[in-house]
């Protein structure tokens, strides 16, 4: 290897692994562009169905195209009885993301065309899983609370049905709008760890479901999607707005990492976070409960004053999902259930222009060791 090749980029920081027309991030502006659209332009104006179609087909649907696609998604929401049985019989102490991973794996194992890698068949799988994952997550949440799962209502849109399956009631307009926007904001985020994991698996020409399972395994971690759970736990630990500043100061003095702050790529702020802050404020007003929003505001200001670090997408999203009725340990599952749209777009793109992803490592071990046989 040359000297240049021997330069290690820990975490592949800044390495360009492939070309993509799906999304790009400029952390210095900051901006997130998805299929040519700035996230600020589409976050509150697109439905989840429109966002999914944009990701899968590279264009926004209109008229009959959108209507047909929405009906297709709605028709695929029901999950097999075998999956419901797994959700009901899995030990209560099991991590919800591990259960979601198992459910998706079972759906894949039950698909006779799982190893058919044509674009049309993979597109079918993408739409199918995008429709089914919210049903799985809502059922998980209800079973965890000792309730029976609620069957999907095909007459409702994707986001409205999702909340209906969670609570058993149609959501009010403020909650629905907040949830719809949250799903759109989380649907795609360039080459994050879970998306890269999906593409690595596809690079071996493994099947679609194996790729998604890899994505779920990656986003489960607290340095990725799992951070949203910890952000809400932090607000609960703080307890009241007046305790936010001393909590942050104590944590920083003890060199503790605070969930929901900072980002690997965004240096000038996460453009999604501002949208979610507005949603959290609106929901707090609508629900008549501003405690969590006020705590978050005070902690945000304390962190900015001390380290000039601002929140990422998970910070206020945690409050939104909590006020919608999702348990703390289910929030990452919600993120996975919307990121399936973005994962699917990357999976399809990787299949269509594939090369085995095979980086190297700089060896730092010993050489020249000799083995002496003990046989006489």
Q: How many separate domains? A: 2
The radius of gyration over CA amounts to 22 Å
- CATH architecture title of the largest domain: Orthogonal Bundle
- The total count of helices amounts to 16
Strand arrangement, largest sheet?
A: 1-2-3
Q: Could you give a quick summary of the protein structure above?
A:
The chain has 376 residues and is an all-alpha fold. The chain is built from 16 helices and three strands. Helices cover 57% and strands 3% of the residues.
Description:
By secondary structure, the chain is mostly helical. It folds into two domains: 26-220 and 330-352, Citrate Synthase, domain 1 (Orthogonal Bundle); 227-324, Orthogonal Bundle (Cytochrome p450-Terp, domain 2). It has 16 helices and three strands.
What key phrases describe this protein's structure?
mainly alpha, 2 domains, 3-stranded antiparallel sheet, globular, Citrate Synthase, domain 1, 57% helix, 3% strand, Cytochrome p450-Terp, domain 2, 16 helices, 376 residues
Topology at a glance:
Blueprint: E1 23-26, E2 31-34, E3 37-38, H1 39-42, H2 48-57, H3 63-75, H4 81-89, H5 96-109, H6 119-144, H7 158-167, H8 173-186, H9 193-203, H10 208-219, H11 227-238, H12 244-253, H13 271-287, H14 291-307, H15 313-324, H16 331-352
Antiparallel strand pairs: 1-2, 2-3
